[in-house]
Amino acid sequence: MSTNTIKSLRFAAFGPPSVLRIEELPMPEPGEGEALVHVKAAAINPSDVGNVAGHFKKTTLPRTPGRDFAGTVIKGRLHEGEEVWGSYPTLGVVRDGSHAEYVVVPVEALSLKPKSLSMAQAAAIGVPFITAWASVVSAAQIQAGETILIVGAAGAVGQAATQIANWKQARVIGADTTSDPIPGAESVVNTKTENLHERVMELTAGRGVDAVFDTVGGPMFEPALRSLTFGGRQVAISSRVDPRVSFNLIDFYHNFSRLLGVDSYGLTSRQVAEIEDELRLGFETGALIPPPIEIVPFEKAVGAYSRVAAGQAKAKQVLSFDWRD
Hints:
Elements: E1 5-10, E2 21-26, E3 34-43, H1 46-53, E4 68-75, E5 83-87, E6 102-106, E7 111-112, H2 119-123, H3 126-139, E8 147-151, H4 156-167, E9 171-176, E10 187-190, H5 196-203, E11 209-214, H6 221-225, E12 228-236, H7 249-254, E13 258-261, H8 269-285, E14 293-297, H9 301-309, E15 316-320
Parallel strand pairs: 8-9, 8-11, 9-10, 11-12, 12-13, 14-15
Antiparallel strand pairs: 1-2, 3-4, 3-6, 3-15, 4-5, 5-7
């Protein structure tokens, strides 16, 4: 391979992971305010699979997918040679993403890699932890001593949110389709076998929770909203089953409840960098820990995408580019 070309995962049509191909492309060049990063590791998120499938309206083709990464700055405002990590919202959508040997990103979207994490671990924290922080801290403004209900607590974003809430000294009630313990959650509500609202009220002695972080939506939205204490706030980031939900508006305003929406794809590069810097402190002090990962050689990327698409990945799939060296 020429030094003027790179290997990149590409899709020219929307569809299942089988539409992906590893191709050679010209080496990208950073423009004003951009940095060229030598990618060492890049995580595969469910949203990357959805992007390849055509679920994102703004995606243009052909495209290199991938939003999360960790690597070394080759060109840019940051010190060349610095180890960085990032998760820029438009990567893989309207600009080529991180599932390639090199990626160009806005310099203000980069943050120094937590020293306590490997490249692969740093690549795995992007979307889950940034989304969780934007929801639990920036939107819900969780405070020490408060109680937060996290719906979908066993998922990647839910687990990240639980860690962040614990770091902020909040009590966590987890809710998911399981009764298995969730690290950091004081109690777990099985939404398949238990009434979410009734169980939350039992766990809070009838008071309700100060905040809800709803990663599921659909039929879980209303019982979660009804679980808020007076003046409580609920943050929604998804509605997997049905985008339309209903609730009693009179009860809602009598309770002085607040409903907030968060879309991590709408965050600016500066907002992302600010969150990354906050998270770095958490990882370096041990308050936060990265998820379990499975390192996958880049040439086996399509297989890793297929495992994520089928829900068969037992750990976060992280593409490694070390084979090239």
